[in-house]
Design a protein that fits this description.
Blueprint: H1 9-18, H2 26-42, H3 49-63, E1 65-66, H4 86-92, E2 94-95, H5 97-111, E3 115-122, E4 127-136, E5 139-143, E6 165-167, H6 169-174, E7 177-178
Parallel strand pairs: 1-2
Antiparallel strand pairs: 3-4, 3-7, 4-5, 5-6
Helix pairs in contact: 1-5, 2-4, 3-5, 4-5
């Protein structure tokens, strides 16, 4: 986004739920356009919460690429300035983990599924990482949309693309996710784990 624009989930939610889009910037409107498309064509209201969550997860991993320019050490690398928010993910199609997780968070908030974003570390070298947790039928599940989109691997199997979809906290711990458990619910739900 240009100078002066910063992402605000609340601003997007307010506009979406009131239908009042006045005062929104072109960036906000572009995000809302994508949300509108996804929530009518990809994950419409007639679907269950779980079906909508899965459809949104799959939409994100199909339409967003990891912004690998952030990893570049070249002098002229071109990191997407919005790679940590839904504009980078949903409009530009390039994001880092925060862009993926904030987009998923936004969609869950739009459809009324309780969701939080967990900030922690990933991989053995414990680099900064973020993922989500959702509550379905009273039970918590972890969702790591970023790690379900292993762009460097090219095409992956359906199983690989859902490896971190609705998994337990124990599974996350076993796969190099690290976080401060204080104030973060424990995900123990298995009913809505991904089924091939």
């Amino acid at each position: 986004a240009g100078t002066g624009w910063t992402y605000s989930e609340q601003r997007i939610l307010d506009a979406y739920f009131t239908g009042n889009y006045s005062g929104l910037s072109e960036y906000d409107l572009a995000i809302l356009d994508v949300c509108d498309h996804v929530l009518t064509a990809v994950a419409p209201e007639r679907m269950s919460e779980y079906e909508r969550e899965l459809a949104i997860h799959d939409y994100i991993i199909r339409n967003v690429s990891y912004d690998s320019e952030t990893l570049s050490i070249l002098p002229f690398f071109d990191e997407n300035p919005n790679n940590t928010n839904p504009y980078g993910a949903l409009v530009d199609g390039r994001a880092v983990c925060l862009g993926y997780s904030s987009s998923f968070q936004l969609f869950m908030d739009l459809i009324g599924v309780e969701c939080i974003t967990v900030h922690g570390q990933g991989n053995a070298d414990r680099e900064e990482h973020a993922w989500n947790m959702v509550k379905l039928d009273g039970e918590w599940y972890c969702v790591d949309v970023t790690w379900d989109d292993p762009t460097i691997m090219g095409a992956v199997s359906e199983r690989q693309a859902h490896r971190y979809f609705n998994v337990t906290s124990d599974f996350m711990r076993d796969t190099n996710h690290f976080w401060d458990a204080n104030g973060v619910p424990e995900a123990t739900g298995t009913q809505y784990a991904w089924q091939p």
